[in-house]
Amino acid sequence: MKIEIRIAELGDIPDIVDHDVRHKDEPGFNGTLAHPFLPGHPWDAEEMRNNKLVSFSKDITEEGWQRVFVIEADGEILGTLNLKNLFHGTLHRAQLGMGLEAPLRGQGLGKQLLDYAINWAKSEDSLLWIDLSVFAHNTPARKLYTNAGFVELAVLEDRLRVGHHRIDDVLMALKLK
Q: Which keywords describe this protein according to UniProt (predicted)?
């Protein structure tokens, strides 16, 4: 399998959305929930593509920007890491979201993707922090982020309720500079 890790381009948006939709229906670590959505949640792929087009087109000094880093395996996007801005007051911070489809997990590719994105963020003068939240039960992801230098700031008990699942969420941050 030929693997490439790179920053996404505008032309990748349809493939990124296809990955997002596939990945959101996959189970997470040990068959647990990986997303705050029930399997089969209806997704509006056209709206997702349009939102990404707008956020990709913004400079990182503008509110609402987003950059996506991809893992492409044999020409198909099977993993993504998103860095994005939530609102104007947080332009010095990026919010991280990451997802690898099941065939890519456990091969060290998540670490490579995370390292690639962190190095990109460090090269951007305006970014000082990367923030994320991760389900408390997702121990492999928590270990990955901790090993990359993220610090656990808080655990929000019972943060999410998805179906009959109560999910604790861990907030983490990485100081870039």
A: Acyltransferase, Transferase
Domain that holds residue 145: 3-175
Q: What is the pTM of this model?
A: 0.91
The answer to whether 113 and 141 have CB atoms below 8 angstroms apart is: no
What gap in Å lies between CA 140 and CA 137, rounded to an integer? 9
Q: Which residue has the tokens 């040990």?
A: 30
Q: What is the pLDDT of residues 12-45, one digit of tens each?
A: 999 999 998 888 776 665 566 566 766 677 778 8
Distances (CA, A) of 122 to 6, 56, 80, 128, 172: 16, 19, 19, 8, 17
Residue 77's CATH number:
3.40.630.30
Nearest-Å Rg of the Cα atoms of the chain is: 16
* 14 φ, ψ (degrees, to nearest 5): -60, -40
Count of domains observed in the chain: 1
